[in-house]
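Components:
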Amino acid sequence: MMFFDTALTTNDLIFLARGAGMTLVVTAISVFFGTIMGIAFGILRHQIGPWWAAPLTLVLDIFRSIPLLIQLVLANAFVTTVLGWRISGFTVACAVLSLYTSAYCAEIVRGGIEAVPPTLRRAARSLGLTWRQDMTSVTLPLAARIALPSWIGLALGVMKDSALVYVVQVVELLKSAQILITRLQEPLFLLLICGLFYFLISFPIARLGGYLERKWSND
Amino acid sequence: MIEIENVRKSFGPLEVLKGIDLTVAKGEVLTVIGGSGSGKSTLLTCINGLEPIDSGRILVDGTEVHARGTDLNKLRRRIGIVFQQFNAFPHLTVLENVMLAQRKVLGRPKTEAEAEAVRQLNHVGLGDKLKVYPGRLSGGQQQRMAIARALAMSPDYMLFDEVTSALDPQLVGEVLDTLRLLASEGMTMICVTHEMKFAREVSDRVAFFHQGIMAEIAPPAQLFGAPESAELRKFLAATA
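Structure:
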């Protein structure tokens, strides 16, 4: 019965819930801005062709290939020490995580757009729709349907990756759990609770994906 | 009136249109026949500016299609085009498919666009499929929807690019019947087709394309009855 013989108090649970709230906020901000930038970068990459997009592709590849932990530490050191800006770790965390998200999202968006048959876009243009009208009414809605499962995967991944923002002094869910583990010395039980919190955040996102997929399947 | 003057067009080293001269009058039904790679489909996509041309010019009611400053989106409202692929927008219902460009391009109010869409869909025999998604339609029905979608823009000209080529044989008839109906109503049409019987029946004139050149153009009785060139005789013998 050791699991129920715990020193965990209600206040500790509230502390964990706060951490979960921080995870949720950092994730929501990063996924929101990362997706907007990702859509813009993805359209740009598709539209201007591989040659002109090469510099953008290189930058996005950098964000995708360097471990997030290193990006966070380096970005934080750069803005606070080199630039001397007085900005919070929270801001740095959101900025880095947004760019990191956008790098992955751009690829997802580009893949989605390229999966829309060119003949369909041609038909849209031949009806007199402008490039922008074709994008907003035909191509992006179809690309969104194609990209949705990957995007849900990205959002869930970013939520778990957001655990790394502790390195810039943001106390999110996993860091909160670690603080309690240090004090209470009940690692397994606390990690179990922590995992449960992650699940509670993830599950609605995953279900939203399932719901949208069903809704868009046009049965 | 569509005037095509000495139009040349290459894809890389391959010259697909080698100086085409052709005039299509208002109300005329012109069918274009010829083997694959003869340039007939390319000509259609050049007429509404989906493809650039290398030299020559194309005038639609006096507006030069490929001139700098020509508003192609505006021009395309007057020229409907239906392709071999059905190109239904799969995320929209049949009704929404036909309403989209009316709303976005012509700026028609919703009720007006809907009334026009219903009218055109009834016209092509899809009045009972308004709320259905295209995925539930047969190829022939999707193609008729594409025709209704183009007609809803009230175009002055309709271009048909091998619209029955991707259909199962038993579905070809219903689409050709729709084209016959349009022709009988006086629509100006250019139809690229492999359906010789159809070309013979509905055309005012038939043009035969061969290797980027318009080899012959004549009323169907003359073109099919007394083909002048050896290429056309060979082509007709092969398709008969």
